[in-house]
Amino acid sequence: MVKKLLHTRMRVNDLARTVKFYEQALELKVARRSTSPRGAQIVFLATPNSDEEIEICQMPPGAPAVVVQPDLMHLAFEVEDLAEFTRKVEAKGFKLSDGPTLTGSGSVIAFLDAPEGYEVELIQRAK
């Protein structure tokens, strides 16, 4: 029986660029770095108030390039105040790609485009 979710893996072409995005835009912290037995470079990012991590993986040279299909997957993060978060992230040079949008449940959502075609959803839950 499964006990809990440990991490989600995303493969990328440019590890440094992707890690820099998550560090700067979302203020995530690198938990650890390693090289897999197959030679892939791996960075685990810690997520606030959660045990789950995000694994960013870049395969060794010669591996096929990553091509992310539109709307294939995204990571979703809860924010306390979406307007304030947007002001802070835009001051760092990042722009929302969609939203803010009020949902039927009363939550407000928006999206940021991460490197390589991945999306990040931001959710301010209804109060």
Strand content range: 35-45%
Strand order of the largest sheet: 1-4-3-2
User: What is the name of the CATH superfamily of the largest domain?
Assistant: 2,3-Dihydroxybiphenyl 1,2-Dioxygenase, domain 1
How can the largest sheet be summarized? 4 strands, mixed
Arithmetic mean of pLDDT: 94
Find the count of extended strands (DSSP E, 2+ residues). Answer: 8
Task: Please write the CATH class name of the largest domain.
Answer: Alpha Beta
Number of helices: 2
Q: Which CATH-level-2 architecture of the largest domain? A: Roll
- Tally of individual domains: 2
In which range does the helix fraction lie?
10-25%
- Broad shape: globular
| Low-pLDDT residue intervals, each spanning 5 or more residues | none
Structural class per helix/strand content?
alpha/beta
The whole-angstrom Rg is 16 Å
Would you give the CATH topology of the largest domain?
2,3-Dihydroxybiphenyl 1,2-Dioxygenase, domain 1
Query: What is the H/E order?
Result: EHEEEEHEEE
**Straight-line N-to-C gap:** 35 Å
Task: Report a brief summary of the structure.
The protein is an alpha/beta fold and 127 residues long. It contains two helices and eight strands.
List the helices and strands and how they pair.
Blueprint: E1 7-11, H1 15-25, E2 29-35, E3 41-46, E4 53-58, E5 74-78, H2 82-91, E6 96-102, E7 108-113, E8 119-124
Descriptive report:
The chain is an alpha/beta fold. It has two domains: 1-60, 2,3-Dihydroxybiphenyl 1,2-Dioxygenase, domain 1, CATH 3.10.180.10; 72-127, 2,3-Dihydroxybiphenyl 1,2-Dioxygenase, domain 1 (Roll). The chain contains two helices and eight strands; from the N terminus they run βαββββαβββ. The strands form two sheets. A four-stranded mixed β-sheet has the order 1-4-3-2, with helices on one face. A four-stranded mixed β-sheet has the order 5-8-7-6, covered by helices on one side. A hairpin with a 6-residue loop joins strand 3 (41-46) and strand 4 (53-58). The chain is globular and about 45 Å long. It starts with 6 loop residues before the first strand and ends with a strand. The mean pLDDT is 94.
